[in-house]
Amino acid sequence: MLHLPDSFFITGTDTGVGKTYLAAQLVRERRANALDCVGMKPICCGDRGDAEALHEASGGVIDLNTVNPLWLRTPAAPYAAGMVEARPIDPAQLLDTFQKLRIHHRQIIVEGVGGWRVPITREYAVSDLAADLKLPVLVVAINRLGVLNHTLLTVEAIQARGLECIGVILNHLEPRGETADVPLMTNAAILGELLNVPLVGELPFGGTLPVAHVAAK
């Protein structure tokens, strides 16, 4: 089984794919194993629930505004939310917060906002943020019809940017039904064949990753 790195960036094939659920679980379980791990959500749009979940998982050792240095109240992409609220977004603020966290904590799990190419400003996207953080990238995808295309495109885009994609987590957002669903039954096997990065594991509905994935390399 693949062990995840000390610090890494979590992106998704879309919004609402379970990035926060996974990130909070990994932070919480690493801390339970006496590892100095904290979570960071550089940008929240809409409510602040994702950041609050990571703050709780981090055991309160960092304040909420450090977990989430930029909170836009408008539930939209950061670029759109910034325009609606007339708030210029300065990526340097996000990078500075990360660097300060890195001085005090050995492991940082950073959760992106939305998918890989979501615009933060006109000239700066989530992909640029991950590149500036210089972190390997883990992709979260939902096990459903369409995941093959979305996952392959996301991994290709990460690698085209010259970044390391450490693998893909296939997330189940619903319990398995009794009726046979061909995509849900075959997606994992096909991704395992087609991806040039590891299919790190499947995250069952309401479940956890195997312990081997929680520890750092």
What does the model show?
Helices cover 40% and strands 22% of the residues. With 217 residues, it is α/β, with parallel strands linked by helices. It has one domain: P-loop containing nucleotide triphosphate hydrolases (Rossmann fold, 3-Layer(aba) Sandwich), CATH 3.40.50. It has a six-stranded parallel sheet with strand order 2-5-1-8-9-10, with helices on both faces. Strands 3-4 form a two-stranded parallel ribbon. A hairpin with a 2-residue loop joins strand 6 (119-121) and strand 7 (124-125). Helix 1 runs parallel beside helix 2 (49-57) and helix 7 (147-160) packs parallel to helix 8. The radius of gyration is 17 Å and the shape is globular. It starts with 7 loop residues before the first strand and ends with a helix.
Layout of secondary structure:
Elements: E1 8-12, H1 19-32, E2 37-40, E3 43-45, H2 49-57, H3 64-67, E4 70-72, H4 78-84, H5 91-104, E5 107-115, E6 119-121, E7 124-125, H6 126-133, E8 137-142, H7 147-160, E9 165-171, H8 182-194, E10 199-203, H9 211-214
Parallel strand pairs: 1-5, 1-8, 2-5, 3-4, 8-9, 9-10
Antiparallel strand pairs: 6-7
